[in-house]
Amino acid sequence: MIHPHIADALKVPDLVRLTDGLVLLRFESMKIYSALAAVRRLLERGTVRPGQTLIDSSSGIYAYALALACHRYGMRCHIVASTTVDAITLAQLEILGSTVEQVRPSRNLKLDQELRVRRVREILAERPGHHWMRQYHDDVHFLGYHEVADRIAAEFPATQLTVVGGVGSGASTGGIVERLRTRDPSVRLVGVQPFGSVTFGSQDHHDPEAIIAGIGSSIVFDNVRHHLYDTVHWLDFTHAMSGAVALLREHAVFAGLSTGAGYLTATYEARRHPDRLHVVIGADTGHRYVERVFGRHSEALDPAALKPVEVRGPQEMTMPWSRMTWQRTPCPADWKESAA
Q1: Which of 188, 207, 51 is nearest to 131 (CA)?
Q2: 238 neighbors 261 (Cβ within 8 angstroms)
Q3: What is the Cα–Cα distance from 277 to 270, expressed in whole angstroms?
Q4: CA dist 83 to 98, 103, 133, 156, 234, Å?
Q5: Which mean pLDDT values do the consecutive 10-residue runs of the chain (340 residues) have?
Q6: Cα 171 to the chain's mean position, in Å?
Q7: Which of 55, 47, 128 is nearest to 93 (CA)?
Q8: Which residues contact 321 (CB under 8 A, 6 or more apart)?
Q9: In 149-172, which positions are buried (b, 16+ CB within 10 angstroms) versus exposed (e)?
Q10: CA-CA distance, 99 to 78, in Å (whole number)?
Q11: Residues 148 and 33 sit within 8 Å (Cβ to Cβ)
Q12: Greatest CA span in the chain, whole angstroms?
C-alpha cells in the first residue's frame, strides 16, 4: 500500500507476540489514530473549516499527533506544551508548521496541567476563531480507536481478551474496549495509573519522580468512562521504568514509560488469568525517555520479584504498586464534585 501521507503510515500499530498469553499492540505514536479521525470528523461535520487553527494542550504524543493531522488536512496547529515535552518533539512540531508555547516550569505535573488549560482558555478569549480540540473531553477522540479494535477482533477471533493500557484521557482504552464489547461483552479492561492521578482516586499519593504524565491526570477527564474498567493498577516511576527496561531486555522492544507500566501490569495479570490473551497497549517509542529512563537502566528492579498490594478501595492504596478490582463501577459523583 502507498499511503497518501506519512501520518497514515505511522498510525498503524504492530502486533508483537511476547508470550503465549501476552501480545503487544505497538504504536509508533498512538494518538495519531485519534487525531486523524477527530480532525476528519470535525471537517465533515463543518465544525471546523480548512485552514482554521486547532489548539490543545499536551504533554507530548498528542501534540505530535495533532500537528501531523493538521499537516495532513491543511489546518493550522497551536500547542500549549508541558514542561516535560522533549527537544526532539518540539523541533518536529515547529518544522511541521505548528506554533508552540510551553508553560512556565512548575513544582509538579498537577500545576503544569492546570497552567496549560488556563493558558488555552486565555488564547481562546483572545482568538475566538481557534477551535479547542479538547482531547480530554470531546468523545470525537474515541473514533480512531474503533479501527484498532476491529483489527484486534479480526486477528484473535473466538479468543478471551483482556486489554491493558494507560488510562490517560480515556479515549484509547475506552474506544478499543467499547468496540470490542459490541462483539464480546466479556472482554476485560485493565487500566494503568500513576500515583497522584485524580482519575481513580490516587491524588493524595505523591511520587516525587512521577513523569508518567500521559496516563494520569490532575483534573477530571470526561472521556474517562469508569464503568468500562474491570481492574485498575497504580504504579510508581521505578516500577514503570523497570517494566520499560525489562521489555527492551527480554523482547528487544524500545517503548515508552507508559508501555513499561502496562507491560509490568499485563505480565502480572497474565499470570493470574492464564486462560486469557492479554493485549497491552504500547503508546509510543522510548526515544523521549532515553535520559530519564533507559539511561538509568542499572536502577531497574527485577520484574519477577515485583507484585502489587491488593486493595479494596482507593483509600487503601499504597505505593509503590497497588491493584484494585474495579468491577465496571461508574465514577463516584463526589469525585467529580470535589475535583470541580
Answers
A1: 51
A2: no
A3: 8
A4: 17, 6, 20, 40, 23
A5: 94 96 96 96 97 91 95 96 82 94 71 82 95 95 96 96 96 97 98 93 81 74 96 96 97 96 98 97 92 94 96 93 97 67
A6: 8
A7: 55
A8: 233, 234, 235, 236, 239, 306, 307, 308, 309
A9: beebbeeeeeeebbbbbbbbbbbb
A10: 5
A11: yes
A12: 56
Q: Amino acid identity, residue 184?
A: D
Q: Which of 64, 78, 59 lies closest to 129, judged by CA? A: 78
d(CA 175, CA 152): 13
- What letter would DSSP give residue 14? E
Nearest by Cα to 212 from 96, 318, 320, 65 = 320
Grid cell, residue 319, equals 505505593
Within 8 A by CB and 6+ apart from 52, the residues are 75, 76, 129, 130, 131
Indicate whether this model's pTM tops 0.90: yes
Q: Is 91 helix (H, G, I), strand (E, B) or coil?
A: helix
Q: Is 192 helix (H, G, I), strand (E, B) or coil?
A: strand
Number of helical H runs and strand E runs in the chain: 10, 12
Burial of 30 (0-12, 13-18, 19+ CB in 10 A): buried
Buried b (16+ CB within 10 A) or exposed e, 310-331: ebeebeebebbbbbbebeeeeb
CA-based nearest residue to 80, from 62, 96, 57: 57
Q: How far apart are CA 249 and CA 4, in angstroms?
A: 36
Using a 10 angstrom Cβ sphere, with 0-12 exposed, 13-18 middle and 19 or more buried, the burial of residue 229 is buried
Residue with cell 515547529: 94
Please give the torsion angle defined by the CA atoms of residues 123, 126, 132 and 137, in that order, rounded to the nearest 10 degrees. Answer: 70
Q: Quote the CA–CA distance of 213 and 24 in Å, as a whole number.
A: 21
